[in-house]
Amino acid sequence: MATFNNKHWLLTHIRNSFISTDDTGISELVMNSDDLAKNLANSYSKMKLSPGNNAIVDESLFYIYPDLINEEEDTEDLLSQSFDINYTQEGPFAFRFRTNTAAKLEKISEIRKKQSQMKTVKVDDSIIKLNQEIEDDSTLFIRKEVNKTINEPVRSKLTEQFETLPPIQLNKFREYSIFDGSSYPSNESKTIQVYITPISELKDYPIRCCVHSIAKIEEFIGYILFKCLNLYPEYAEHLEEVKNYGLFISDESGEPDLDFPALDLTEVIAKYQFNILALAKRVIPHMQNRTLSVASDTTTVFIHPVIRQPSIDTNRSLPTNLRNNQNELAMNVHETMVEAPIYQAYRVYLVTKKHFKTEVQLGISAEKIEVDPLQQKSSNYFFRLKSTHFSMESVAFCEVTSRKSSRFEFRISYNPLHYDPLSFAASTSFDTTISFPSYTLKTMTFETDPTTAEQICLKVNNILLLRTSSVRREYLNRHEKIKKSFIRKKKFPI
Amino acid sequence: MVQSEGEPILATAGYDHTIKIWAPYSGTTVKTLQHSDSQVNALAIKNYLAAGGFQSIRLYDLNASTNPLINFEGVSKNVTAVGFQEDNRFMYTGSEDSRVRIWDLNCPQPVCKRMFDCLNPVTSVCLHPNQVEVAISTSIGGIYIWDIKTDHNEQLMPESNCSLSSIDISPNGKYMAAINNKGSTFIWDLYADEKKYTKTLARLRFVSQQRYGLKCKFSPDSTLLVATGGDGTARLYKCEDDFKLYRELKIDKFWMWDVAFSNDSKYLFVASSDGTARLWKIETKNIEREYLGHSKALTAIAFRDEFIKPSN
């Protein structure tokens, strides 16, 4: 009320009331250019400052409360807005960012709430003597006769439970229970809704997992499996080892988004901001991370991803089975290498230039790749496919090119001009051609489910690694050169 | 989910600022209690759960929230021992500020009724089965037997230049045992004099641990004594067989900090610094359960079993 006899304050108040209550915004447009109170204040300060001005200034006209004018920045704020208008309650300004202070106040009120539930007893040694003198302790300290002979045998409930209850199945992921975040304050834990996609009955309802934020993704997966098994012990047989699963970005439907690779196993969960994730089986169990490229450079397939030990503050480490993961991994890779040259046939779709899809049998052995069309429907009558066989010596590369949630596309590229007795050079019109000055590559695109696609690519690349043909070598050389020149161009744009 | 009445309860705590309540048979966590700002040095369960930590004594109601029910303010140093009287009449605490306090639990708020100053940091406190005398061990190796009612006390010094880690009196009142930081275990015979004060008679001294001795405890039926320590073993001795070694329970490299027996003395819970509590069947030396869930070392364990009277 004290400000009501301040003309300047009243002016700004009226002005701001007009601006903030007029939803059409016209008042603001009109008044934006002339802020009467501000102009008066400015002219007053100019008049006061100009040395040659001896005219008597009518102070009452420019009277401004000292507190309002002293601090320049604050003055502007105070003059430009009214205290009576609360921006947080109505109008377009309803949204307000939470400040640190608000968060702090909330924390304090939470602590207060906790304290109100908790009684406090003061430990004060000076009043003990008094207690001792005033009160009669005959009921408090009663001497009991001790029977020195052994009492009749007692049984314990625990022993009875062990004898009578059926043996229980212990949770096989229980070593991960240390990452339970529910006992930590909210800034040290993360709560994430996780969809368990490998179990069809559970994939529609997420499990709420509260995890300690120091946990690595691998440890988090272990904790999810632990929690899942705790809630649904009947699925114990459905769940495999931790390394067979990956955490994928997901939307609210729970469908893992396979366009993105699985979260890096060695990263800390605190790094990610996701509220919803999906647990899914890795496409190829022994491949630790989809982030490893399969085709562009075959050697990367055989780099064993290092699994970091779960970090715990004490010196303890998790049981040895985790430590052995790396050896198992090496064994798995070794087995695929050994099995790679053995002939295997896959049913896949061949994608032609015109986006026709034809079901073919793709046979892969150490010697050659055979593409045999399966029985075709009448719609494709005019587009009859011939069998294509080409030697493994002529294959340059094989890689997954597109990853859609259920269908993966992969390409096999070979040189049809490569001399080989097995090659029939039966190139068909649907092959796309990549031209290099001195050699030509033909590429065939196939489509199939993710697991098969990854398996085929791995198999072909393993074979290519075992037998380094001239086509392959040339491809790799050129690939390197293209890469280098690309980098050079990037570095020197001129 | 709260334990129903009559179910055994296991509580474990240590350096991760939490107390976990377990269903001992299923090995699952029933509840996690907050013990903010401090580690837990000692635990005891009766109707309430008592936890002693750095400058804190807290009482928890197991059926209520995860926050403490009563917080004792103003203790200056570590609280190293907590325990309850048999009928839950009073609670005793011992701390490094060299004082043992007796808290009356029958009042609306616990009131400190008695206090005993040992002049040296208290490492362990044990209530005599007669419920009115308390045995106290201190960090300079001294032992006090204090009569709460009359304030009379006896002093002992079994060995100089060492610290006693733990003291216990057998439930039948026959023996008192103490273990020191050098791994030596001392046994005394107890008897009452004409004024009913407990007197001691040194009986035995033997090395029960190669390294640091941490805890000694008699089984509820007074037939076994367990001694644990820094060499990762819990050694069980037969009392009636002149304390001959009966069983040795061993884990790799970690320290065993605290133990608890089942009521029939057949099972032993051990808390160790690998953050795991284990349940051993003493006779077979089998680990029956492992309680995994703590992220740091465990230093305290408490177990409340239910007696089952023989049917006849």
TrEMBL record, chain A:
User: Which family is this protein grouped under?
Assistant: Belongs to the SIN1 family.
Q: Which residues form the SIN1-type PH domain?
A: 342-464
What is the source species? Chironomus riparius
- Where do the CRIM domain residues begin and end? 156-282
Task: Extract one GO molecular function annotation from the record.
Answer: phosphatidylinositol-4,5-bisphosphate binding
Instruction: Please identify the protein, giving its name as recorded.
Output: Target of rapamycin complex 2 subunit MAPKAP1
Listed GO CC annotations: cytoplasm; plasma membrane; TORC2 complex
Swiss-Prot/TrEMBL GO biological process terms: TORC2 signaling
InterPro entries referenced in this protein's UniProt entry, alphabetically: CRIM_dom, PH-like_dom_sf, Sin1/Avo1, Sin1_N, Sin1_PH_dom
Q: Which domain of life is it from?
A: Eukaryota
User: Where is the Sin1 N-terminal domain positioned along the sequence?
Assistant: 18-146
From TrEMBL, chain B:
Family, as annotated: Belongs to the WD repeat LST8 family.
Subunit notes for this chain? Part of TORC1 complex. Part of the TORC2 complex.
Q: Name one Pfam family in it.
A: WD40
- Has keyword Repeat? yes
**Where do the WD repeats lie?**
1-32, 72-106, 259-290
- Which biological process terms from the Gene Ontology are attached to this UniProt entry? regulation of actin cytoskeleton organization; TOR signaling
Q: What does this protein do?
A: Subunit of TORC1 and TORC2, which regulate cell growth and survival in response to nutrient and hormonal signals.
| Record key words, sorted | Cytoplasm, Repeat, WD repeat
What the entry lists under InterPro entries is as follows: MLST8, WD40/YVTN_repeat-like_dom_sf, WD40_PAC1, WD40_repeat_CS, WD40_repeat_dom_sf, WD40_rpt
Q: What's the domain of life for this entry? A: Eukaryota
Protein's recorded name: Target of rapamycin complex subunit lst8
Q: Which PANTHER family match?
A: G BETA-LIKE PROTEIN GBL (PTHR19842), TARGET OF RAPAMYCIN COMPLEX SUBUNIT LST8 (PTHR19842:SF0)
Where located?
Cytoplasm
> Per its UniProt record, what PROSITE patterns does this chain match?
WD_REPEATS_1, WD_REPEATS_2, WD_REPEATS_REGION
Q: Name one GO cellular component term.
A: TORC1 complex
> Which species is this record about?
Chironomus riparius
Using the UniProt record, give the first listed, main subcellular location. Answer: cytoplasm
